[in-house]
Write a structure and sequence with these properties.
mainly alpha, 133 residues, binds ascorbic acid, single chain
Length: 133
């Protein structure tokens, strides 16, 4: 087919967010250890930055709940597109801040930036995603 079905778009979105969550878990698990594994964190931070920039492509028009596909994405993603774009930019900027901190390998600084990154995840979920069942 020329276009992906909404269910394929939803599947792709879930897969991309799973990978993003796995990368963030790598960062957080490493920071809980006795000393940060700097190279591992740098690699995970780069994946997070790449994901944060690609994220707008994970929400093609027609892949919301109006399609009938099972998704926790709220229609607000498309009806308040400027607000969604702003949230994505906030996330991408903080992902870049984490990546810069990863160049230093400084544990406490990394922890602060990782916490701020988690807040940008949550901020978007609170507005644009249905809560868990
Ligand atoms: C995660 C994850 C999120 C954020 C959020 C932080 O690891 O999957 O959505 O952190 O829980 O508050």
């Amino acid at each position: 087919p020329l276009f992906a079905a909404p269910t394929d778009d939803v599947r792709n979105r879930i897969d991309r967010f799973r990978e993003l969550g796995a990368s963030f878990k790598t960062v957080n698990d490493s920071l809980r250890g006795s000393e940060p594994q700097t190279v591992l964190i740098q690699m995970a931070a780069r994946q997070i930055v790449n994901a944060s920039r690609d994220l707008p492509n994970w929400f093609p028009k027609g892949s919301g709940p109006e399609s009938g596909a099972k998704t926790k994405t709220k229609p607000l993603v498309w009806t308040q597109a400027a607000k969604f774009k702003s949230a994505q930019i906030t996330f991408a900027n903080q992902a870049a801040a984490l990546q810069r901190a990863a160049q230093t390998g400084n544990g406490p600084i990394l922890q602060g930036e990782a916490r701020k990154l988690g807040a940008t995840c949550k901020g978007c979920h609170d507005t644009f995603r249905e809560p868990r069942d």
